[in-house]
Write the structure tokens for this entry.
Amino acid sequence: MSLELALILLGMPFFLAGTVGLLRFPDLLSREHAVTKADNLGLGLVVLGLMLGAESVLLAVKLFLIWIAVLVASATVAQLIAHTVIDAGSETGGGS
Amino acid sequence: MSTLVFLLVGVGLVVMSLHALFVHTHLLRQVLAINVLGTGVFMVFIAWGSQSPTPHADPVAQALVITGIVVAVSATALALALALRIKQTTGRATLSEETEE
Amino acid sequence: MDWVLEASALSLFGPMGLALDLLLAAGLLWLAWRVLYSPDLFLSVVLFISFGLLVSLAYLRLRAPDVAMAEAAIGAALTGTLLLYTLRHMGVPIEPPRLAQHRLLTGLALLMSAGLGWAILTMPGFSDGLVVQVTQHLPQSGVEHPVTAVLLNFRAYDTMLEVAVLLLALVGVWAVSSTELRLPAPSAVLRGMVSVLLPPGLLVGGYLLWVGAYQPGGAFQGGAVLGGLLVLLFLAGWRALAAGWLLRLALGAGLLAFLAVGVLAMAGGSLLEYRLEAAKNLILFIEFFVALSVAATLAMLLLGRPGSAGEQQP
């Protein structure tokens, strides 16, 4: 029970860091980097915590699949946005 | 308690979006306002239905709202297609300036 | 009824639950304010999507998971994408706010919120009449989930007309839109994602459709997932999907199946009055085709008219 809570609490600062990065970083690519990397890790920890607390194996598997789906989607979308930014050749600032 | 909070949120959404609907002239903004307006009404429905003690709240209200969401997206799609056509034909994204001229 | 919800934080009660509700409420009102009044339309549209996701959380708090799913997939994601697409083609991202000269309207809005608030607070108590009726007749509906029973049996008439509205809206969109959909060349990354997500996506769509008989889910939620997959497939280069009679058949299948079952049911009773022993299969039959139609229609609302390019090639 306490490990479950600890993992969830451990995951939360990553969301905070990702959000702060999204709001404070100067250019698009580094902001995107902050959101995708920190949030995915944070979500992983939260999902792991929830899986430990899940009352059935099926539920735990579903939670894990949600994390995988988010990983695949956010990785792809991040790539697509980055490619668009690079192709447009603007707004990359000094960060690329 | 959730019921009361979200009933009032629903009222807030309806009032805000009605005001926005009258104040703004840009067509996209008006479509946004109508969508928020609909969401406010749906919120009142669902919040009211959540008072039912059964595990599934009020299924009739939920079925109505699901129907409403699908109809809302249909109407929105049609409205947006019309807005885009108006912009392409007249070069303007509003309706109101035509009456002033 | 062991749905996830019962065990999750979203069924919190007491002060923690109230705190969560108030946080959600404040977030909803603030986001709505920004959506409606921020001078940057692009920002408004993006925030509208976040707003829809918060609304869906609020529906979960109010024990309406079916509605939450529909709102997240259709209300937030699809409407948001439609708005983004239109915004890009209209090309007026910044629009000056027009607030200063409308004191009267602001006064009226305040008056109205007071009136509506008063009406809500003094509404007569909740009546369980319809809920009791649904619960009593649930064993005769052919399904075990009350929301699906209402949608596809007790009020099937509404749902049939809703499917017709969806189809009509698409016809309308096709009639007025003149722009050909211009898409960038499909990137390898996107194609990779689609090939990874397609099988589980189909599984999730099918599962949602099937599970609607017992649990939150159903034709519209499943159809929305499948529609999203269709859009992804299209973006990844499977353009041939959007052309020809197969597409048109998919678009009309839901309404046709509904009508066919409804009219056949007239042999023994009246329109859409299923016999008990056949009800479950009939409902599943209708739901399957409705999900197919919902998927195709939602995708085509987004993708626009398949256009001459798609029709002249074959």
In short: Chains A and B do not touch (no CB pair under 8 Å). The two ends of chain A are 43 Å apart (CA to CA).
